[in-house]
Amino acid sequence: MATKNELDTKLNDLQARLAAIVEKKDLPRMRQELEKLDAESSAPEFWQNQVAAQGVMREIGRLRQEVELAEQLQDQLAGQVGDLTNLTEEDSELLQMIEADLNATAKAIDKLELQTFLGGKYDSGDAILSIHAGQGGTEACDWSEILLRMYLRYAANMGWKTEIVDELKGTEAGIATVTIEIHGDYAYGYLKHEHGTHRLVRNSPFNSAGLRQTSFAGVEVMPLITDDVSINLKPEDIEFTAVRSSGPGGQNVNKVASAVRLVHTPTGITVSSSSGRSQAGNRELAMNLLRAKLFQLEEEKRQKEHTELKGEYKVAAWGNQIRNYVLQPYKLVKDVRTGVETAQSDKVLDGEIQEFIDAEVRQL
User: Fold this and answer.
1) pTM (2 decimals)?
2) What is the distance between the alpha carbons of residues 238 and 35, in angstroms, rounded to a whole number?
3) Angle at 222 between CA 218 and CA 223, to 5 degrees
């Protein structure tokens, strides 16, 4: 158990951290923005544009949650100051209770502090995450499916909603490629640094000798952009094709051409969606994916130009992995960029990847 002096020091540290967060987030400005959006949502014509209205309501919810959390933490710390003032070392039971309260407050401040690093245009919004099997054949397809499970579990732990937009199964096992939409506060901000090559080393479950196998999978993370004038997407630049769905899906499959493929002719980018029940639904999902890919293309160009000015530029390709997952002959998951590592590989593959995400967000 911590001493009273140690708790005083911890409390002062938490107060300083919270004050810095409140200053950086500019709480008065957030309150003004919240009032403005609340007034906007009360206008009679507000719901005429459903997509825009839903976006505003979500932003209202996010701002209100952050403002209320910051104010709640300020009140908690003020109360804990009062609790500690009149205590002595002999009040061990009360000191133990205050220590537990401070630890809980510290976790909440950690989360709020992390969000101050996520100030990008789309960081607070939804994400599109794609996984593509790389070198390794059936092994790589199986690895892609393991990664899909990892990200779905992480999203569930965060309270986010997920939807598989498109999926192509591997020839023998696993998945060749899959795309999911992830809906939740700061989904893109947290996940964007997962973009890159993920490398797996293990004894192969697909051959009788159980030889050690190295497999690769590429992860793409893009913001979900439903409508943005900064994405210069012209209708005449899009080739639309309706195709028949394949795989499980009931009697409708193979009878109605509900799956959609879009080609952006200026860039050659091709996207598809087959998970929706209607062609219109799949077209909307595909358009979201196309906007995201165009945004990602521009971001990669900007980052390349910026990096080339500073020095060497590395293409995100096989051999340039961001994280290694070793399951045999020992267990170790290590992030190449931050150096964060853990021997708890089973927990990582069960979706416990927050320590990797925290380190990368705080580093940049």
Assistant:
1) 0.76
2) 39
3) 160
Bridge-based pairing of strands 259-264 and 238-243 is: antiparallel
Q: How far apart are the first and last CA of the chain?
A: 35
Q: Which of 34-38, 48-52, 235-239 comes out lowest in average pLDDT?
A: 48-52
Strands 196-203 and 212-223: antiparallel
Residue 175 host element (H or E): strand 175-183
Q: How far apart are CA 170 and CA 139, in angstroms?
A: 10
CA 111 to the chain's CA centroid: 14
Q: Identity (one letter) of the amino acid at 227?
A: D
CA distance 179 to 174: 14
Q: What would the CATH number be for the domain defined by 4-115? A: 1.20.58.410
Strands (E) across 229-340 are located at 238-243, 259-264, 269-273, 323-326, 332-335
Name beta bridge partners: 341: 334
pLDDT tens digits for 15-24? Answer: 999 999 899 8
Q: What is the pLDDT of residues 175-220, one digit of tens each?
A: 999 999 999 989 999 999 999 999 999 988 887 676 788 899 999 9
Of the options 3.30.420.40, 3.40.50.300, 2.40.110.10, 3.30.70.1660, the CATH number for the domain spanning 121-364: 3.30.70.1660
